[in-house]
Amino acid sequence: MSVFCGRFDLLQVYSILARRSILRMPRLVLPVSEFRLQSCFASSLASHDIAMSCIIEQKKALRSRMRRELRLQYESLAHEEDPLIQKHVMDASWYKRSRHICAYISCHSIREVGTSQIISDIFNSVHTDHPKSLYVPWIQDKQSHLKFFHIGSSEDLIANSMGILEPIPANSDGSPRSDVMQMNESIDLILMPGLAFNHAGRRLGRGGGYYDCFVKEYLLHAAKMGWKSPLLVGLAYSTQILDEVIPTDTKDVPIDALVSSSGVLRFSNHPLLNVD
Length: 276
Ligand SMILES: Nc1nc2c(c(=O)[nH]1)N(C=O)[C@@H](CNc1ccc(C(=O)N[C@@H](CCC(=O)O)C(=O)O)cc1)CN2
Ligand SMILES: Nc1ncnc2c1ncn2[C@@H]1O[C@H](COP(=O)(O)OP(=O)(O)OP(=O)(O)O)[C@@H](O)[C@H]1O
Hints:
Belongs to the 5-formyltetrahydrofolate cyclo-ligase family. Pfam families: 5-FTHF_cyc-lig (PF01812). By secondary structure, the protein is an alpha/beta fold. The protein has helices at 7-19, 39-42, 47-91, 93-97, 116-124, 210-225; strands at residues 100-102, 133-139, 146-151, 157-159, 165-167, 189-192, 196-198, 203-204, 231-235, 241-242, 257-260, 263-266. It has one domain: NagB/RpiA/CoA transferase-like (Rossmann fold), CATH 3.40.50.10420. Helix 1 (7-19) packs across helix 3. It is globular, with a radius of gyration of 20 Å.
C-alpha cells in the first residue's frame, strides 16, 4: 500500500521533511532544468510541481537567512554603504540620461538600501535643464499587482499598513495621479529593492511577486508601444551579493545591473549601460 495517497499529501510531506532537514536540498540550489528528483516522489508527482515546491522552500529559507543577516548588520551597513551606493547611482551615465524613473521609497524597518538621496535628486532636477520624473510603487492588491504613480514631492506620500511610504493615489485637486501604464512616454530606469542578488543578475525579492509581475506587464506594454525596455537596476548592501545560485523560477525577471558600495556590476548589454 502506498504511503502517499495524493498530490496534496506528497507536497505536505516533502515540505515537512525539507523543513526538518531530513530531506535537505544542497545549499547551492540547482536551476529547475538541472534539478534531480528524489526517486521516491518522481513516480507520483509531476517533476515540475516538485521542483516548484522545492524552489519556494529554498526561496523562503534564503529570505530568512538574509533577514537574519540584515538584522545583525543593518545599522553599520546603512551608515557606511547607503551614501556610497546612492552616489554610484547618481554618478552613472545611465542615471543622468534617464528622464522617467521608477524607484522604491526605502524603509528602515525592513532594512532596505536607502534611496532618499536619489529621490531628493530627482525632485530637485525639475529646476534643471534635465528634469526627471519619479514614479513610486503602490500596492494595488495582494495578488502581486503593483502600480507606479508619479509624485512631485514627499508630501504626495503616505505610510501604508506595513509602514512603507506609498503615493496618495489622487492629486490634491482630486484628479487621479499619473500612472506609468498610462504614460505617453516610456520608463527609462527601474531601481529595484531585493533581499539577495548574485553575480549572474539574479534577484530574490520579499516574496510578494510584485516587482516580477509589474516588470513583466510593463515589458509587454513597452513592446506593444514599440518602446525600448527600461534598465533594471538592483541596489544591494555588500552582504546581499551572494556567490551562490539564487533559487529562481520562470517568473523571476533578471536585472541588468546591480549597484553596491563597490560600484556597478553589469549583467546585460542593455543600450543604456553602453553610453558614456
Ligand atoms: N520600499 C519598498 N516598497 C515596496 C516594495 C519593497 O520591497 N520596498 N515592494 C516590493 O515588492 C512592494 C511591497 N511589497 C512588500 C512585501 C513585503 C514586505 C515586508 O515588509 N516583508 C517583511 C516580512 C513580512 C512578513 O513575512 O511578515 C520583510 O521582508 O521583513 C514589504 C513590502 C511595493 N513597495
Ligand atoms: N509575473 C507574475 N504574475 C503573477 N504572479 C507572479 C508573477 N511573478 C511572481 N508571481 C507570484 O508571486 C509569488 C512570489 O514570487 P517570488 O517568490 O518570485 O517573489 P519575489 O521575487 O520575492 O517578489 P518581488 O518580485 O516582489 O520582489 C509567487 O506565488 C509567484 O508565482
